[in-house]
Amino acid sequence: xxxxxxxxxxxxxxxxxxxxxxxxxxxxxxxxxxxxxxxxxxxxxxxxxxxxxxxxxxxxxxxxxxxxxxxxxxxxxxxxxxxxxxxxxxxxxxxxxxxxxxxxxxxxxxxxxxxxxxxxxxxxxxxxxxxxxxxxxxxxxxxxxxxxxxxxxxxxxxxxxxxxxxxxxxxxxxxxxxxxxxxxxxxxxxxxxxxxxxxxxxxxxxxxxxxxxxxxxxxxxxxxxxxxxxxxxxxxxxxxxxxxxxxxxxxxxxxxxxxxxxxxxxxxxxxxxxxxxxxxxxxxxxxxxxxxxxxxxxxxxxxxxxxxxxxxxxxxxxxxxxxxxxxxxxxxxxxxxxxx
Amino acid sequence: xxxxxxxxxxxxxxxxxxxxxxxxxxxxxxxxxxxxxxxxxxxxxxxxxxxxxxxxxxxxxxxxxxxxxxxxxxxxxxxxxxxxxxxxxxxxxxxxxxxxxxxxxxxxxxxxxxxxxxxxxxxxxxxxxxxxxxxxxxxxxxxxxxxxxxxxxxxxxxxxxxxxxxxxxxxxxxxxxxxxxxxxxxxxxxxxxxxxxxxxxxxxxxxxxxxxxxxxxxxxxxxxxxxxxxxxxxxxxxxxxxxxxxxxxxxxxxxxxxxxxxxxxxxxxxxxxxxxxxxxxxxxxxxxxxxxxxxxxxxxxxxxxxxxxxxxxxxxxxxx
Lengths: 340, 320
What we know:
By secondary structure, chain A is an alpha/beta fold. Chain A is built from twelve helices and 14 strands.
C-alpha cells in the first residue's frame, strides 16, 4: 500500500457511531426476557486507500454512504474504531492533541456550508489571523497582515473588505474566505467536503477554478468529497465510489467514467442528467438504500443489484485489481458475470 | 386564448418598509396541454415566485402589481380566494422541494390523501381511499395498501416525494408546478422521480412547469425553457435549441460553467464574473451588463426587450 510519494494512506478504517442513547433506550423485551441492546451506525466499514502527492482523489456516493465520515477520520476529527491513518509515512490516528499539532498545519479542511463554517462574530481579518497566531506565535503583526493580504488576493477577495463580518458577504465570497482560511497555513493536503454544493452554478465554476488554480500554484493534494459527478469528472485524478460505508470501486477518473465496473457505479453514472441530451435509459436499481444500522450480509449492494447471486449474499467481496489499475469489489466482476 | 395557461406581462412586488421591490418584472409565457416547461435560473432570479403567483400562493408582503394570468380561458389573476381554492390544488397542483416539510408528520399518509380529496370533491371516505390507492399505484409505490397507514417518518426521501406526487395527482390536475422537486434527493432517486413525472405527463396529458436550477434536468425532461435572471425572462424557446445554441450571454455562460459541457476535465471552467444583483440593487439598462462580455453603451441605459432571435427562440439582448 505504501508506495513512493504517497502523502496519505488509510488502512482498514472502521468507524461506527453508537446511537443507542441512555440505559432505558437500550432496554429490549424479547421472549419474556429483558436485555440491553446497543444500536450502532456502521458509517465506514473497512476502507483502505491512499493518496499520492499532487493528485486529487474524489470520494463520491449518495447521502449516508460515509464519505464525510471518512474525511473526518482522515483529519483526526473522529477517532477510527479500528484501522490506521498514515500521513507521509507516520501514523497519525493514535496521536494525542500535542503530537497532532504539526500535522494539523499541513492538513486543512474546507466545509460545505459557508454560512455555517465561518464564525459570525469574527471579521475576515480575525478569522484569517487566528490560525497563524496559534500555529506561528513567532510571527509579527506585520508579517501576519502581509500573509493575509497575499492569501486574500489569491482567492479573489477584495482586501478592503478585511474588516467586514461574514453576513456582509454572499455565499460565493464566504466560500472564498473559507478557502483563504484553509490556505493561510500553507498546507500540503486539503480535505474539501462538498465545497461547491451550496452554491449557484455560475458561482460554482468560479470556486472550482479557484481550487484548481490554488492546487496548481501550491502543489496541493486534495481529498474531495462530493455527490456531484460532473464536478468529480472535471477535477479528479482518481475517484473512489462508496456505498453504505464500503468502498466499491477506485479508479482513474477517465477509466471510471469511460468504463465503470461495479454495478453500483454503472447505475450512478447512468443517472447523471447531461445538458443537451434527452434522457437515455438509466439503470434502475431495485428497492432502496438499506440503513447503515442493519447492514446487509455479504456484499452490501446485493439487495439492489441485478447480478447478485448466492455468493453475493454470503461473502463480502474484496477489492481486486484489474489490468488497468481499477480496483473493484464485486463478485460478479471477478467471475465475469457482467455482460456489456 | 387557445393556450391552457397564459401568463401576460406579470409583475410581482414585495412591499417593504423602505418601498416596493420588484421580484418579477414583466414575465410572459404560455403553456399548452401536455406541454413541459422548464423555468431555470439561479437563486433569487424569481423562478419560484413566478410559480407561486400562478396559483396565488404569494404571501404578504408580496402582491401581483401588474399583468394577467389566464387558465382555461378564465382570468384567474382576478379571482377571489374562494374561487382560487377551486383551482389551486385541484386543477393546478404544486410539488415543493423538501419532501419532509410538505407532509404533515403527525398524520398518516392515508389521512392526508383522503383529506385532500374531500377538500375538493364530495365523496365518501371509502371512495376517497380507493382513489388514494389508485394514485399510489400510479406512482409505483411498493405495497400501497400498507403505505396508507404509515407516517411520513417511516418512509425514505424518494418515497416521500412519490407520495407527494401521488397527492398532487388526486384531483387529476391539468397542470403540475414542480418547484425543485429533486434538489433534496440523490442522483439515482432524482432520475427515478424525473422518469415518473415524465411518464405521468405523457399518460395523462398533463402539463408540467418544472422550476429548477439544474440545466441538465431541464434539458432531459422539458420541451420549452424560460431562463430567468433578476426577475426577468431573458431567453425563451425550445429546450433543445436554447441548450445547444444559447443566444443570451447569460444562458451561454451558465451552460459553459457546468463541468463537462464544453470544457475538458482539468481545464479552467468558463466562469461568469461577479454575481446576480440583489433585487434592491438592479443596475440600470440590462440587469446582466456588469457581468457581460458583450456589453456596449446601449446596455447601460436601455433595458432590452424579449425579441425574436431566430429558430423560434426569444432573447432579451441588445447585442444579438
